[in-house]
Amino acid sequence: MFSVVLLSLIAVLVVTIYFYIKWKYYTLRGSVPGLEPEFLFGNLRQLGIITSNKELIDSYIHGCEKMQKLYGDIFQFWLGANHFYVFCRPEHAEEIYTHRHIFDRADMRIKTFGLVAENTLIATIGSEYKRHARAILPMLKKHKFVSQTLIITNCVDQLIDIWKQRYENKDDNICTCLVNDNQQLLLDLFTLITFDYDLGNLKRLAKSAISLNRKENFELSEMTNALFTWLNTLKRITINGIPYFINYYLLKFDRKFQNALKILEKHIEKIIIHCQQETDPDMKPINLVASLVSSLQDDENLERLKPEIEKKGISKKELLDELLGLIAAGFDTSSNVISWFIYYVSKKPEIQQKIKEELKQNGIRKETSLDHFDLLNECKYIDCVLKETLRLAPIGLGGFRTLIDDTVIDGVKLCKGDTVLSLMHFMQQDPRNWKLDPTQFIPERFYGTDAPDINHHPFAYSPFGGGHRACAGQELARLELKIIITRLMQFVTFVDTPGNNGGHRQQMAVAPKDLAVEIKFD
Ligand code: HEM
Questions:
Q1: Does ligand 1 have an atom closer than 6 angstroms to the CB of 342?
Q2: What long-range pairs does 145-151 form, CB within 8 A, spacing at least 24?
Q3: What positions does the entry give for heme binding (predicted)?
Q4: Residue 278 pLDDT > 80
Q5: Is residue 321's pLDDT more than 80?
Q6: Eight-class DSSP state of 217
Q7: Whether residue 123 has its Cβ less than 6 Å from ligand 1
Q8: 136-521: CATH homologous superfamily?
């Protein structure tokens, strides 16, 4: 009898919890249109983004685009358990990005990043954010990197040599692993210029190209492997639909993830020691890691006891999280932009030709070393190509913000705690915002003072988000991408092939699913 009562009570409890979670997390709110979400999956399965066993088969961007077609410019959306209101007009973006006292970094970002690196800039707000920003933001300004041009070109040169080894004068000369190649390029390059640390992936890639002439037989470095485990975990917890506190405990017992963290801690400890040995404490920090290391707290225990507003500097754990967060934010985005650039220009040889002519006109030939970024100042067409790539490439959804006060956008009442998304990618391709066909890759839309789309609405184009929480690395990103594009165009031409079909593959950012080009060496 007792056990029957107990079982009944448990059953009632489970059903109550189920309905509570369903009501709290998975129910349409107010009058804003949207698809009634499914338990755990939200709208992801309904929109064909994931399968029933949570395999990602399409990008979140396609999902949001389908919703816009169904419901118009304002709708609600569930990415797993994460609910947000989506806004699709530049006027909405302006409202969201310019009112920093109402819209701050989104809770879902704080919580998901917080599970894998709770102290990264991306996952902090208020005084804690300001303390981290003081150590990081000044070091991500463009002028801090212009002297690193040679490091960037050296990395690109290594990759071009790898391609030569693999494809020059070979029958099988179609490259289908560019997304991976570009990831290794950006990982090595990013850790070198920001942390003065060589991950050695390009060297490994080169070795495998020489010894086996096969691109698949390539072993990642220990740190890169751990980094990918960490990134995949971040991607998984973003979409697995499980409430945060359960994910928190699942991660505590996830051995693969915990091992990866230990490996990352070990390598980052090495980076810190190397940096401390190399840096003169009386000199100004010369790179990002040096700035972070110089901000390390003298007495962590003492700082921990202070209220946040009085804390100074960052702890060692915070430094580890910052480095991970910056790699996560910086490498996947930039490497996918390069992959999309290659995809778009392989379809338009005339654009590659125009870039090459611009380089020649500015005296930049094959043998010209790009040791001064100033050399590229006059290459305005390349700027337009990069701008157009960032407009069309489906890198991310846009800016997420959580409200810290009630407000109204375009007649929609929003409450403190609600999360909104300014759907940047959609706006960048919405025909209402562009004169020339926005589905086409046309750098000329921005080229020259009277170019057709030069006077677009300022908030119709925001690949780096906007406002006080816009991308912290955008100056670095623009600089490294311009140098990479230039260096590639100094030496190679990308030629379209029958398997070069594009499509979306959702990683942290979105990569082209089928990128297959012939690489011609000029
Ligand atoms: C083409 C490359 C990149 C793209 C398209 C990109 C895009 C973005 C976007 C859309 C956001 C969200 C902005 C918002 O919510 O308004 C963001 C945030 C961020 N990005 Fe980037 N990013 C790129 C490269 C980088 C690089 C190279 C770094 C670092 C070195 C970086 C560091 C960050 C950080 C730290 C944040 C969070 C800022 C904050 O929370 O205040 N990003 N990025």
A1: no
A2: 145/193, 145/475, 145/476, 145/479, 145/480, 146/372, 146/373, 146/479, 148/193, 149/370, 149/371, 149/372, 149/373, 149/483, 150/369, 150/370, 150/371, 151/189, 151/192, 151/193
A3: 471
A4: no
A5: yes
A6: -
A7: no
A8: Cytochrome P450 (1.10.630.10)
pLDDT digits (tens, 9 = 90+) for 430-442: 999 999 999 999 9
Which atom of ligand 1 approaches the CA of 105 most closely? 40
Task: Count CB atoms within 10 A of the CB of residue 88.
Answer: 24
Write the residue with the smallest CA distance to atom 32 of ligand 1: 473
Q: Report d(CA 270, CA 225) in Å as an integer.
A: 17
The two counts, helices (H) then strands (E), for the chain are 18, 12
pLDDT of residue 454: 96
**pTM as predicted:** 0.94
Take atom 21 of ligand 1 and give the residue whose Cα is closest: 471
Ligand 1 pocket residue status of 334, Cβ below 6 Å = yes
The pLDDT score that the predictor gives to residue 262 is 93
d(CA 67, CA 167): 43
What pLDDT score does 504 carry?
93
Q: Which atom of ligand 1 is nearest to the CA of 465?
A: 16
64 is in an annotated binding site: no
